[in-house]
Amino acid sequence: MNKTVRLLSVLIAFIIALVFQLAASVESNRREWALKEEACDTFQNVLRQEEETRRVAILKNSGGRESLLYIDKEGRVLFSNVSSEKEDALRKKTSKSSQKEGWQLISETSLEKEYGQKTNFSDGGHLFMGMKQETMLATNLHFLPYTLLLTMIAATSLFHLWRYATYRDRSQIKQLFRQFRHYVMDHHYQMDLPPQLLDYEAILIDESARLRYRLSSLESQLQGLNDMVGNMTEGVILVGEDKKIITINDSAVKLLNGSIHSQFINKDFDKLCGEGDFHDAFHQIFEKRKGEIRKFEMEGFIIKCFFDPVFNSSGGLYGMLLLLIDETQQSLAERSRREFTSNVTHELKTPLTSISGYAELLRSGMVKEEDRDRFLDIIIKESENLFHLIDTVISFSRLEEKNRAEEYRTVDMEGLVAEILAHFAPDIKSKELRVDFDPGKDNKLFTHPVLMRELLSNLVDNAIAYNVEGGAISIRIDDKHEDDFILTIEDTGIGISYDDQKRIFERFYMADKSRSYNEKSTGLGLAIVKHNVESLKGTIDLKSQLNHGSVFTLRFPKSGTVSTH
User: Which has more confidence, 346 or 140?
Assistant: First the structure.
């Protein structure tokens, strides 16, 4: 652009200088001719007033004249300062033009013209005078250096003038575009601009309005996306090409054992997860730029992570998206299912093996008559245990079906506990147990009667079965708390070890593995208790010590006990 402007400035300056040169040349040529003509006329007038001898003396002293030839009336040359060839030419040209007045052209070249004039004196003498004059070309060539100098000066001035005007406009345009952000943020914003920039401002206002609309739309979409990601239970992390975190939700921070009070945006990924298998896997997959799915176990959590690289429109790597799913409960449920299946198989296999063995002995006829009835009693007993186990398993599988909101009602807990104790009265009497029941004053609870009866029956059954002969059972209802309904069942039985307490609520787990205290135990009683308590939105707490009995404390909210699980 600058080169074109320079050339244009030179061309314009040259044309202007050339026009001035032509005008100056014409004027200079005209003035020079007028001065020479005036000098010649004065010289001729002086000669006319003198006599012949005096004329010759004056001509000899007039060295500045270019071409002079003076002859007398007889044709003799009295004075000449030109060559003989030129004398002949001067005589010939002026004689042919003697009828014409003024100066006559004698010769002409590209740079010079020569004019001649014949002057007649009163004594018959003649003066031939020649005068040279530069042509317009010679005059222009004479002024050419000045023209070129003027051209350079004018071109430089024009260029710098253009640069100044352009720089000023460009500076104002730059300033205008620097304020584009203000036009976008404030639709009332305007600048004090010269008239030539108002069109630019109008365009800028239109573009800012369109951009403002698009930004508003994008902000709404981004806010919706952030809200969605923030409320996801799955962890979401977007890491940039420089391995700095662009986006992360609280779920991801919790799954990776980070602090939700820390700021991880724009921080290196290593600040969130600086070591371990997850850290190493991330860097390996990031370098390979290929998606993968991996599982990790971190501090009791089992996390399934989807690593997906993100590419921009040009195919370059933008970053990597990580989706973290907590599969801890799923894995625990799978393990529990396998254990449940294994335990059910084992529990079913034990009585079936006993029944099958005694039945084979009876069929073989090798059993003594006095042992026949004993073997049949064993088969009947094992069959009853098998049916009891099947009923318990079926009951456990249908726990969710029992918890229906329409079946909740206000239950008289004193009456319910009394009915359960009455049901187990024969067992209590057989072990000579002492039962203390403190119903309290406010013993009404809005709850599910079937689930409550089932869990209390199991706890009372265990308190009787695992108690010592002549022991005691204490049942208390605490109505002193404003928000919670608290029921405590305490026994003086064999107690539960610290290690067994960790698993006592698992299905088919039995602390008394020999079943010396409860032959009918299936290992599902406390699992049913735990499930029913949670269904009723309550909690159960166990305190126990070997040979010192156990204390089960149940807490239920006095309001909102209907489960939606």
Answer: 140
265: tokens are: 């945006």
Per-residue pLDDT reduced to its tens digit, 116-162: 888 888 888 888 888 888 888 877 777 778 777 777 887 777 777 76
Task: Give dist(CA 211, CA 326) in Å, integer.
Answer: 41
Give yes or no for residue 77 having a pLDDT over 90.
no
AA identity, residue 177: F
> What tokens does 128 get?
């031939």
Q: pLDDT value at position 565?
A: 34
552 phi and psi angles, rounded to 5 deg: -105, 120
Which residue matches tokens 């706890």? 459
Secondary-structure breakdown of the chain: helix, strand, coil percentages, each rounded to the nearest 5: 55, 20, 25
Question: Can you give the pTM of this predicted structure?
Answer: 0.40
Mean pLDDT rounded to a whole number for the chain: 79
Q: In which residue are the tokens 């265990």 written?
A: 462
Q: Which helix (H) or strand (E) holds 505?
A: none
The answer to whether residues 47 and 128 touch, using CB atoms and an 8 Å cutoff, is no
Any idea which of 316-320, 449-453, 466-470, 500-504 has the lowest mean pLDDT? 500-504
Spatial distance between the Cα atoms of 73 and 403, rounded to a whole number of angstroms:
161
Rounded distance, CA 140 to CA 491, Å?
A: 134
CA atoms within 13 A on the CB side of 179: 18
Tell me the C-alpha distance between 346 and 348, whole Å: 5
Distance, in Å, from the CA atom of 103 to the CA atom of 44, rounded to the nearest integer, reads: 13
Q: How far apart are CA 350 and CA 363, in angstroms?
A: 20
- Rounded-to-integer distance, Cα 153 and Cα 145, Å: 12
Type of residue at 281? A
- What b/e readout covers 332-343, taking b as 16+ CB neighbours within 10 angstroms? eeeeeeeebeeb
H/E segment holding residue 254: helix 250-255
Distance of alpha carbon 415 from its chain centroid, rounded? 65
Helix, strand, or coil here: 15?
Answer: helix
Alpha-carbon span 447 to 536, nearest angstrom: 7
Amino acid making up residue 273:
C
Question: Can you tell me the mean pLDDT for 457-468?
Answer: 90
Phi/psi for 291 (5° steps) reads -75, 145
User: What is the spatial distance between Cα 562 and Cα 410, in angstroms, rounded to a whole number?
Assistant: 12
- pLDDT band for position 101 (cuts 50, 70, 90): low
Residue type, 245: I
CB neighbours of 113 closer than 8 A, spacing ≥ 6?
105, 107, 132, 133, 134, 135
Average pLDDT over residues 337-349: 66
The torsion region of residue 525 among left (phi > 0), alpha (psi -120 to 50) and beta comes to alpha
Structure tokens at 66: 């270019």
**Amino acid at position 406, single letter:** E
First CA to last CA across the chain, in angstroms?
77
Return the pLDDT at 398: 54
CB atoms within 10 A of CB 117: 21
